[in-house]
Amino acid sequence: MARVKVGFPESPEAAEDRSEHEPREPDAQRILVDRFHDLYYQKADRTWQATRWLGVPVAKCPLDLWIYQEILAELQPDVIIESGTSLGGSSLYLASICDLLDHGRIYSVDVAADGERPQHPRIEHLIGSSTSPSILADLQARIAPGESVLVLLHSDHARSHVLAELEAYRRLVTPGSYLIVEDTNVNGHPVFPDQGPGPWEAVDEFLRQAPELVPDLDREKFFLTFNPRGFLRKRAATPPLTAVREESPHRAGTGRQGGEAAEALPYDFQLDLTADNTYVRALQLVGTDQRVLELGCATGYVSRLLADLGCRVTAIERHPGAAAKAREVCELVLTADLETDDWSRELEEERFDVLLAMDVLEHLRDPAVCLRRAKRHLKPGGRAIVSVPNVAHGSVRLSLLEGRFDYQDLGLLDRTHLRFFTRSSVEELFRDAGYLVTRIQRVEAPIFGGEVSFDRSLVPPGLLDWLEHDEEARTYQFVVEAQPLAPGLHGRLQSRLAELGAENDVLRAQIRDLTRPDAAGEPRGGETVRLRAEVGDLRRRLAARQQELAAAREHSRQLLEQARALRSGLEAGERELQRLHEAIERQEEEAGRYVGSLRQHLTAKADELRQLHEVVERQEEEVRRYVGSLRQILSAREDELRNALDAAAAADRNFRDAERDLRAVHSSLWYRLANVYWRLRKRLGP
Predict the structure, then answer these.
(1) Helices (DSSP H) in 233-388: which residue ranges?
(2) Could you tell me the sign of the dihedral formed by the alpha carbons of 7, 9, 14, 17, in that order?
(3) Pick from 73, 48, 3, 5: which is nearest to 185 by CA?
(4) Which residue has the higher pLDDT, 574 or 536?
(5) This prediction's pTM
(6) Which fold does the domain 26-234 belong to in CATH?
(7) Which pLDDT band holds residue 65 (cuts at 50, 70, 90)?
(8) I want to staple 135 with a disulfide (CB 3.0 to 4.6 A). Which of 128, 140, 215, 520 is the partner?
(9) Which CATH number is 240-484 given?
(10) Can you give the pLDDT at residue 275?
(11) Which of the 8 DSSP states describes residue 232?
């Protein structure tokens, strides 16, 4: 993915590595976000296609809708233009936010009319193509002079159409406002990889020719967005910078041509952003939408350019008047001396993406101390970008050969410089401060015609040729990018870098020895051809060593990227562990409270149980006494019953005896009656 240009000519080094400066996320985090993004997008029927506002389908990510209301609350635009009305849920949402703000109106453009779209006093529907001249003219006529305008593009997603929309509406968006391109996530960013070139590709192509618009990555803070790199903010117009200077122990004039007599404020310059100079190189390395800690900001003329690139700048400046002017463009400016004041404690736990020091370190007695203090304020993966003058420039060397080292108001020999640097001493400075130099860019300047003067007629021709072929002699300033090293990290790699550097120094020394002219201005020994061949061979060997050194630096950078990813994962694990620890502590506290409550409850129940036990014992005693009484009564009743039974048995025996006697009597009576009967019959006859 190509890095967004910021309106400056791109150096060859930056063109080769432009993708390095895009904001990055740890690989594991990026994979997790993309996988969730793809899941959320693929389950459209239950996620974004089922998203409604006041019952009307919106078909957007709710996180993006939240960002929209934040933008509207911050900017309160007078006019909002929406291309692609669809079912009208999006324009209704925007109108509802405008109702809450009591400000703003919406013009929604679509090729098709739909009478079922929701109506609202703040919404006006325009029917036609969003790129048609008649629609554009109609919109332009509806915008009053001085009104602020915000545009959302959500119609045809073909690259050609989106690119045409971007070209048409870039002129309507007002400075400081947004041109939002929706659905840049399709065609593999990360969803629908087979979609074909669409909004993302249109934005990528458009930004190469629209330096006034830059992606505002802060609007992607929720990780999930359907508009990655689609929140394009139009930079505010920058007032011209004056070219005045006053001495200051924290700013250098190195590399700045021109200037007037000392006035009230230090180092206030007009910068040429059309040339390939130190400031353009540094701003390209910083990139867009970064949080920057700038050391020695002077009047904020660099801070202002950073703010135009969407960066948020915190700065440190010693001069009170310059600091006051810098506060116009910086989030925070500390008035402090970089070496004697405890500015690090003032920043406390603040963390930044970039540490920027433009021509500052050469004004400090011990710049390594300053770099070490600033290192603790860099985020994981943060970078230091520093520019320093090269005291080994050919003009300084030739001046020294004449026995002169004349200080000046500006430039390489600025009279306020306390330290002087060459490439090797710059690398040594960063090593001592605990940084790994990942890139050094050279800003070259001619040896002749600069601010350091010398008598050219006294320079032997061979020496002049040697200097003009010496890269160090042509280098006017170094622009250094470095990253903090964890204690002990890449020690072996650092040793290897030092070895390669030493080999380079030896090769350079051999080249200088072989090309050093004699009194006649010719190489010594008269063996010009052989020596030139040896010089060529040494230069090739030097180039090979430099390539090996660059490869080692690249390998170190990759290791640092891996270390940052591991550190991010470790920090995430530590945060998760801390969260679990806190959750466990809360659960333990809740368990303690529950156990205490349970103990109180059990104690109360135990008291109740004891009381119940006493009641039961009393009742058992009463039952025992009652049972004893019952037993006595039953015993008496049993005796009475036995006596009654005995009496009944005796009565029964008496009854049986009587019955027997009765039967006997009865039998005897019948016998006598029968005899009487038969005798009477005989006597009376038949």
Answers:
(1) 278-286, 301-308, 320-326, 343-347, 367-375
(2) positive
(3) 48
(4) 574
(5) 0.42
(6) Rossmann fold (3.40.50)
(7) very high
(8) 128
(9) 3.40.50.150
(10) 64
(11) E
